[in-house]
């Protein structure tokens, strides 16, 4: 039953990690290491059942393989989940015990932060293993990836405007930005700098006020964001916001934002095409975050990071070419780009280009 599931999704290895004294129950899933070591964050969540945790880690690790492959990284896909409540169950022992399991994999899996985990937790993991990214800047880490993610999303937007309208004049178009958090606010700033008309919404009123006063955005209600007359809808909050209820309301011609898992399901992805809307695949657009942490493996350098963000433009352009070539929706074309890259690079058999985890520039402290 278990191996059937692994065979269906193509996972290489699943590790169950248990330390009774530290209260650790975690699962590490390595989906694919053809391009390099599996990189993906650790999520801490109070899963209702072990099956739910397993399902989540299998799904998320597979997603990382696709994201990392399309991003052009020499990195495979993996993910970890820790079963527990981030508000109550965190401890030094728990994260150090988890770090020991990461270490035991000898670099086949490299971890990072995800939902429920912060940089302080990663400090404990880092005491036990080198195979962790997103550590604090004082250790040579890359710091908050959000501004990079926003800048990368802008590169994705340029390629998408070009494809849809034949120009890259950001300021000529209007935008509906949903979510003004770490990425969304920075994205609004970049749009404003280019003279765009922007509609914004967020649950947090202070963030909306900031977007209005600092970037001249127009505030709209949480639900109203789907009805505004904007050329581009930019989801930068939660996933699943493109669904059968919202799609008929959207007036946009382009969907391009940083949120993960924007399409509620594949059927809605097909429906988006029928409505003449160009969808910029989310995991290609928001790859800036993972690119930024992946650079830590080689010795982090901000200029290199900005340069790498600009490759998102070309990744999107390539996805649109594949969409044309094969007559498939863009969300499928992104998956195909990932699969083609894994297949062709996997055949090269160049061990030196794989799994270079040198961690240059790291400073170990107590
Ligand atoms: P964040 O938590 O800082 O911001 C999310 C914002 O969305 C918050 O301000 C929240 O109030 C708002 N929000 C939540 N529900 C909303 C709703 N229904 N309507 C309007 N606003 C709502 O998160 P973030 O780091 O900015 O990430 C945003 C999205 O981008 C997430 O989907 C995340 O997974 C994805 N992403 C982020 C990064 C990164 O570098 N931070 C990288 C890749 C992908």
UniProtKB/TrEMBL annotation:
Keyword Oxidoreductase carried by entry: yes
InterPro entries: Aminoacid_DH-like_N_sf, Glu/Leu/Phe/Val/Trp_DH, Glu/Leu/Phe/Val/Trp_DH_C, Glu/Leu/Phe/Val/Trp_DH_dimer, Glu/Leu/Phe/Val_DH_AS, Glu/Phe/Leu/Val/Trp_DH_bac/arc, NAD(P)-bd_dom_sf
Record flagged with keyword Oxidoreductase: yes
Keywords: NAD, Oxidoreductase
CDD domains, alphabetized: NAD_bind_Leu_Phe_Val_DH
Xref: Pfam families: ELFV_dehydrog, ELFV_dehydrog_N
Residue ranges constituting the Glutamate/phenylalanine/leucine/valine/L-tryptophan dehydrogenase C-terminal domain according to the UniProt record: 143-350
Domain of life: Bacteria
Coiled-coil zones: none
Similarity-based family: Belongs to the Glu/Leu/Phe/Val dehydrogenases family.
Function statement: Catalyzes the reversible oxidative deamination of glutamate to alpha-ketoglutarate and ammonia.
This protein's name: Leucine dehydrogenase
Organism: Thermomonas beijingensis
């Amino acid at each position: 039953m278990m191996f059937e599931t692994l065979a269906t999704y193509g996972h290489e290895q699943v590790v169950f990690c248990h330390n009774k004294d530290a209260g650790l129950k975690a699962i590490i899933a390595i989906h694919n290491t053809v391009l390099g070591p599996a990189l993906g964050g650790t999520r801490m969540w109070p899963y209702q059942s072990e099956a739910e945790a397993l399902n989540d880690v299998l799904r998320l690790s597979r997603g990382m393989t696709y994201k990392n492959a399309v991003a052009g990284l020499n990195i495979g896909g993996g993910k970890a989940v820790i079963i527990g409540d981030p508000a109550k169950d965190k401890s030094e022992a728990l994260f150090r015990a988890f770090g020991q399991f990461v270490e035991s994999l000898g670099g086949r899996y490299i971890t990072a932060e995800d939902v429920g985990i912060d940089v302080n937790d990663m400090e404990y993991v880092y005491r036990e293993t080198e195979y962790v990214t997103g550590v604090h800047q004082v250790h040579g880490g890359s710091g908050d990836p959000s501004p990079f993610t926003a800048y990368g999303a802008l590169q994705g937007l340029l390629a998408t405007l070009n494809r849809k309208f034949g120009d890259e004049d950001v300021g000529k178009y209007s935008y509906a930005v949903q979510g003004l958090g770490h990425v969304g606010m920075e994205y609004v700033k970049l749009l404003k700098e280019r003279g765009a008309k922007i509609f914004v919404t967020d649950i947090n009123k202070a963030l909306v006020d900031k977007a209005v006063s600092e970037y001249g955005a127009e505030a709209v209600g949480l639900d109203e964001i789907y009805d505004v007359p904007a050329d581009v809808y930019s989801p930068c909050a939660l996933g699943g916001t493109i669904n059968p209820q919202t799609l008929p309301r959207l007036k946009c011609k382009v969907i391009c934002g940083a949120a993960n898992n924007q399409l509620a399901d594949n059927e809605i992805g097909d429906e988006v095409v029928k409505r003449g809307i160009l969808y910029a695949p989310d995991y290609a657009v928001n790859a800036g975050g993972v690119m930024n942490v992946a650079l830590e493996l080689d010795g982090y350098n901000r200029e290199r990071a900005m340069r790498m963000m600009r490759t998102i433009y070309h990744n999107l352009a390539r996805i649109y070419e594949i969409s044309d070539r094969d007559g498939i929706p863009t969300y499928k074309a992104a998956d195909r780009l990932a699969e083609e890259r894994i297949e062709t690079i996997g055949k090269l058999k160049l061990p030196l280009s794989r799994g270079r985890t040198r961690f240059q520039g790291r400073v170990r402290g107590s």
